[in-house]
Write a structure and sequence with these properties.
The chain contains 8 helices and 10 strands. The protein is α/β, with parallel strands linked by helices. Strands 3-2-1-4-7-6-8 form a 7-stranded mixed beta sheet. Strand 1, helix 1 and strand 2 form a beta-alpha-beta unit. It is globular and about 55 Å long.
């Protein structure tokens, strides 16, 4: 079985590459597939190995490197069609234990992960796109609801490329009309998965490193802020900052129904 792994590490995110690659080579689908990595980066100094394809990609900065990721993937669409499965992993992904066929998609052709803990909230508090003019808009009063993360997803080449093409077109349509969805590409993934079923990975396969867990995570997302405070993007983590965030969440939750 041939598997393509998509990975973006432009700008300061390139510091995560070695840890990602080494842990993937140690734990990801060992003995089950031949993996080739497609790495979108502006760092020409990253070590080159036989199963890694480096695709020169300028750093556009936040949020554009993430927002337009699907357009990046379409640059190698014809290459990806040659693979059985395609997966995307966030730059700060690290594999902690063996990952096997449990991440293969089911009959839906897609796999994704719900944000741990968030899906225990009332759906009005999910960070859905609330702008009705956006292609990522999700309306109230239309359950069931779930909130998926953007950091891990994949599937068969055909099913995944269908998602990539749809999300890329919708994001570009929004952008040309001056709209950027609230959580960027993640907002558009959530809109797509409202109408396309997928296999859902357990929390152990998508656990933030900084969160305490009563189990041993299999895949983690490294704590970027611990590595470099600038990854916090200026977020106010003080008590006052958390209070303002809570008030904002409540306001947006109420407005969803208005």
């Amino acid at each position: 079985m041939k598997v393509a792994v998509l990975y973006i590490c432009t700008g300061k995110y390139s510091r995560f590459y070695t840890g990602f690659y080494e842990s993937a080579e140690k734990y990801l689908l060992k003995g089950l597939s031949d993996i080739e990595y497609f790495v979108f980066t502006d760092n020409a100094e990253l070590a080159k190995t036989g199963n890694v394809h480096f695709i020169e990609t300028p750093c556009a900065g936040f949020p554009y490197d993430s927002l337009f990721r699907f357009e990046m993937f379409l640059r190698i669409k014809e290459d990806l069609k040659k693979f059985d499965l395609v997966y995307f992993f966030n730059a700060n992904t690290a594999f902690c234990q063996p990952v096997g066929k449990e991440i293969f998609p089911d009959e839906t052709g897609l796999i994704a992960a719900k944000w741990p803990r968030r899906n225990r909230q009332f759906p009005a508090f999910y960070p859905y796109e609330r702008n009705r003019k956006s292609q990522a808009y999700i309306a109230p009063f239309q359950p069931p609801y779930a909130y998926y993360m953007g950091g891990i997803n994949g599937g068969t080449a055909s099913a995944y490329l269908n998602m990539v093409e749809t999300c890329a077109a919708n994001i570009r349509s929004d952008y040309m009309r001056g709209i950027i969805a609230r959580v960027h590409d993640e907002s558009h993934i959530n809109k797509y998965l409202r109408t396309h079923a997928c296999k859902v990975l357990p929390p152990a396969y998508c656990w933030p490193e900084e969160w305490a867990a009563q189990f041993s995570p299999i895949i983690i997302f490294r704590d970027k802020v611990k590595l470099d405070p600038s990854f916090g993007k200026g977020r106010d983590r003080s008590l006052w900052g958390r209070m303002k965030k809570g008030v904002g969440m409540l306001y947006r939750a109420i407005r969803w129904y208005v």
